[in-house]
Write a structure and sequence with these properties.
- The chain has 178 residues and is mainly α.
- The chain is built from 8 helices and no strands.
- Helix 2 packs across helix 3.
- The longest helix has 37 residues.
């Protein structure tokens, strides 16, 4: 009888689960969600910095591939700041477009012309750049382009690494007319 009485005894308040002693799963789920959102937001910017570092290293080293890396970096910087260059543009036409649309003048415009000339000489004349000859002009042009202002959106979702459809909140299939 004593065992039955004990079995029917009401729970004491200390025996009830409270918020502090309750399940910790909601906190874990919230932290995982926050980490996932943070990773999605930071990944494009980190990838863009990685691309810059890789391209800058190739350009600085000179030789085969240096001109392409330097030129790709200038095109990416321009695109990130709102001026994409159509793939059909020649090096000179792209340089003119970048100069005009970003309002480059003085030394940055000269650096871009110099870079365009070295890229053409490498691609069409087989004159590979010497080590350390491309990174200066690339940095001057990038700095001048960025001086026009960088939006938070350009930092978080750089156009050079994030497809336009994603930046505009559409699925790539939304652009497909079929």
């Amino acid at each position: 009888a004593r065992a039955r009485a004990h079995a029917r005894a009401p729970r004491r308040p200390a025996d009830r689960p409270t918020a502090a002693t309750g399940s910790w799963w909601p906190l874990v789920v919230a932290l995982l969600l926050a980490a996932a959102v943070l990773a999605v937001v930071l990944t494009p910017g980190l990838w863009r910095r990685h691309q810059y570092s890789r391209r800058a290293g190739l350009a600085r080293a000179g030789g085969d591939g240096a001109a392409a890396a330097a030129w790709d970096e200038v095109l990416a910087a321009s695109r990130d700041h709102g001026v994409p260059v159509p793939p059909g543009d020649t090096v000179r036409a792209a340089a003119d477009r970048i100069t005009e649309r970003h309002g480059l003048s003085g030394r940055p415009a000269e650096a871009l012309r110099e870079l365009a000339g070295r890229v053409e000489a490498s691609w069409y004349g087989g004159m590979l750049p010497e080590p350390g000859t491309l990174d200066g002009p690339v940095d001057e042009v990038r700095t001048a382009i960025a001086a026009g202002g960088t939006s938070l959106r350009a930092r978080v979702l750089p156009a050079s690494v994030v497809p336009e459809a994603v930046r505009r909140g559409r699925r790539p299939s939304d652009d497909d007319p079929t």
